[in-house]
Amino acid sequence: MTDRTPEEALRELGITLPVVAEDPKYTSWRASAAGLIFVAGQLPYRDGVLPRTGAVGDDVDVETARDLMRTATVNALAVASQATGGIGRLRIVQMLALVASAPGFGGQSNVADAGSELLVEVLGERGRHARTAIGVAALPRTSPVEVQLVVEVAQ
Q: Does residue 68 carry a pLDDT above 50?
């Protein structure tokens, strides 16, 4: 990682963080008394549209799932950035990657790696995190992937 800022990294990657609208039923993030910020699960929406649906290993190939994981991670970064007052203030503590998986599919870590790689590309060492990748039978709106983050304000 060079000495570039997270904002510069996003520009170099051609990524613009979207504005994530609030849902009337739940909040996109919640801060704890300990200073951790819990980002609600984010789907890979692009301009309000879920580009693919279905199970990875059946309806969705691994490369497409990896691309969707990156998008869901960008959306989670957008929420975390809004919660902390800027992407330069983030330190990722944990990532939970959920992958809607066809029976017998065991490549959840490979799919999740795309999100983890993006976090490190953008935030450097502050993007390295503990991670869990889980295969599930289905996700909301039949999304192939979902990402949840726990972050803290970097010192």
A: yes
